[in-house]
Amino acid sequence: MGVLLLLRQSNGSSLRPFGACSALVIGLIPAALIGVMLGNLFLGLPFSRCALAASEFHGTLSGLFRPFALLLGVISLSMFCQLGATWVMLRGSNALRKVSRRIAWRAGVVFLVGFTAAALWLAADIRGYRLAASVHSHTLCSPGLSVVLPGNAGWQGNFSAWPLACLAPLLALSGTVLSLYSIVRGRAGMAVLGSGLAIVMMLCSIGLALFPFIIPSSVQLSASLTVWNAASGEKTMGLMLILASVLMPMLLAYTVGAGLRGRNRPLKSSPKGKISQRIQERQQRLASPAIHRDHRIA
């Protein structure tokens, strides 16, 4: 990716269009695959556990691109495009703002329609799972021994048990509407906040719907991975807590510092204009001593 960005920034190079297109494609593919992966979690993955507790995958790569998973891929791609376009609206030049405004609006509409369609599809046609054993049962902590049953239609069980969880999808839709309204009004800052809220709340909605499942199995229900049987040991979790307590504040401080340093630096549609300006200034500085010498000789 770094090589492609260098090609994108090189002036006069025949590889510059290739670098720009390749960087665009490489950026779009992961954004879409995240949604495809999340969609397969709702459908369940075809894996089982053998007698040695080893996982065996019974599907194919092409089998993961099912219609519902592809829909979530479109939703994921649109939400990241909307966030990126609204950020360019906030930081970009006038030419970039006009283009990014159109992209942000279209991506927001796709996200709004797609998210609503996915929720209706889940409720109407997707079969969910539920744990039959108690949380305190030792079987929950043993992969392959959990009692998993179908019957959680549309993965709506947690929303029925915890009514406050319904706020997550509602806030996701509200954030998208806020972002679209801000795009129309030209308020880039509120558009960024709205699209960011939509992304966070959509991920929270997925987590609340799937809990306690992490990777459900569609061929051997008892092999499904949950937060209980996929967790590490107590000592490992304690060490991870200590490391996260130290490293996470450092990461947040670096991210905030980088954002504050670059908040007043507008994005440029092309580096060519800036480079040309520097060349002209340098030529003027080199020519000024010669002009003074001509005046003294005269």
From TrEMBL:
Protein name: Cytochrome d ubiquinol oxidase subunit II
Tree of life domain: Bacteria
Annotated region (Disordered), positions in chain: 264-298
Transmembrane segments: 21-48, 68-91, 103-124, 161-184, 196-219, 239-260
Gene: cydB
NCBIfam families hit by this protein: cydB
GO molecular function: electron transfer activity; metal ion binding; oxidoreductase activity, acting on diphenols and related substances as donors, oxygen as acceptor
The UniProt record lists the keyword Cell wall biogenesis/degradation: no
Lineage, top ranks: Bacteria, Pseudomonadati, Pseudomonadota, Gammaproteobacteria, Pseudomonadales
GO biological process per UniProt: aerobic electron transport chain
Keyword terms of this UniProt record: Cell membrane, Electron transport, Heme, Iron, Membrane, Metal-binding, Transmembrane, Transmembrane helix, Transport
InterPro entries for this protein: Cyt-d_oxidase_su2
Membrane topology designation: Multi-pass membrane protein
PANTHER family: CYTOCHROME BD-I UBIQUINOL OXIDASE SUBUNIT 2, CYTOCHROME BD2 SUBUNIT II
Cellular compartments per GO CC: cytochrome complex; plasma membrane
Record's subcellular location: Cell membrane
